[in-house]
Amino acid sequence: MAAVFSSVVPGSGQALRGRIPQAAIAFLISAALLGCTWLIERAHGGGAAVLFLMLLVLPWWAIQSYDAWLTAQSPEAGLGQTLKVIWVRAHDVRYLGALFLLTALTDLYIIVANPAYSLTVFCTKPAGLLGPLAKAQSPTLHTLIGYGFMRLRRWSLLLYLAYAAFGLLNGTANYACFGYGRVRTVFLVTLIAFTAYVFWRRRCFTAPRAGYPGL
Fold first, then answer.
1. How is the chain split into domains, by residue range?
2. φ/ψ bin of 45: left (φ > 0), alpha (ψ from -120 to 50), beta (otherwise)
3. Are 153 and 90 contacting, i.e. CB atoms less than 8 angstroms apart?
4. What is the pTM (predicted TM-score) of this model?
């Protein structure tokens, strides 16, 4: 119940358990992040705000909700302990998997809502049968990678690294052909940072999750 409350109003679950300092910290950080999202939207547009929301705001929202759940399970729980549990149980990787599944849904929506949309692959837009196939690979691979990350399957790490290599080569080629573009630049920078983090956490796909019961 505490986690449900915190998922609606940050910090409320901790307050329900009598952890007022933790509740205040969770609420203030959440409010600050939402404020930053609003400022980014005003300064740089909705796309940048959505990126900030997915990479920082939503993870923090999930962390403080999980912290409320752990607080209800153990009197020794605290934000530091929560972060340790998240790290050991690889919930950060599972969150990335959830992002891939969300991206798969948005990709599918874009394809269905805009039939004329065509994906640029190495400076060209595939025509004929290759066009729909090129578009279909994105939601398909995002779904597979997302599921694999959620289950910490090693094959999903290998699939992602191959997909990231293709994305980096394709993005670099398009950058060379069409020059600077904010979307292309953000995509390449985000892809490199994302891949570096996944590679850093590669042991999560092989090491057993031990030491903490349940979630």
1. 2-87, 91-205
2. left
3. no
4. 0.82
pLDDT tens-digit readout, 40-75? 999 888 878 888 888 899 999 999 999 888 877 776
- CB count within 10 Å of CB 161 equals 14
Residue 13 near residue 69, CB atoms below 8 Å: yes
Query: Which residue, chain included where needed, has tokens 């805009």?
Result: 114
Q: Angle at Cα 54 formed by Cα 50 and Cα 59, nearest 5°? A: 150
Distance of CA 23 to the CA centre of its chain: 25
Q: Can you tell me which residue has the tokens 């329900």?
A: 16
Question: What percent of the chain is helix, strand and coil (3-state, nearest 5)?
Answer: 80, 0, 20
Per DSSP, the residues of 149-184 read HHHT-HHHHHHHHHHHHHHHHHHHHHHHHH---HHH
